[in-house]
Predict the 3D structure of the following.
Amino acid sequence: MILSGKEILKHMGKEIIITPFDEKRINPNSYNLSLADELLVYEQEELDMKKPNPTKRLVIPEEGLLLEPNRLYLGRTNEFTRTDRYVPMLEGRSSTGRLGLFIHVTAGFGDIGFAGYWTLEIFCVQPVRIYPNVEICQIYYHDIDGEYDLYSSGKYQNNSGIQASLMYKDFE
C-alpha cells in the first residue's frame, strides 16, 4: 500500500524524515524533492564495474546547464531522507518526464532503513536545460508487511554528496 500525502505528513518527523521539509511540496501520494546545484559525470567513456571510475564535478549555474543526450549525469537531492518504517521509492515528476528527462536509470527503489541524499541518475532523450533547486522528482512510501531487516550495507548509507557507483566494493 502506498501512503497518501496526508499519511506522509502525519508521520513526518517520526517514522519519516525529510530535511529540509516544506509542506507545500506534499502531493496526494508523494512529496517533491529538488535538485542540488552540482552534478558528477564520468571522465571515461568505458566504465569498469570492478574499479572506481573517475568523475568530474559540474556546477549547475542559476542560468541553467544544458544536458546532452547519451551521457549519464549523477546528481543528488537537496533533501536528506530517512525512514525505518516504510519502503521509499523515487520517481520523476510527470513534468520532467514530458521533457524526456529521466531522473533514475534503474535505482528508484529504496531500502527500508536508508538514510541519506538520493543520488539521481539523470539521462535525457534530447538536449534539455536544467536548473538548480528545481523540484525534479518525487518520493513516495510503501508500507511493508512481515518482519524485515533495515538497510545496513553501509556503501551508500548516510552519504553527504553525490555518489558514483561503488559496485567495485562488491568484488573485494
Q: What stands out?
A: The mean pLDDT is 94. The first helix runs from residue 5 to 11. The radius of gyration is 16 Å.
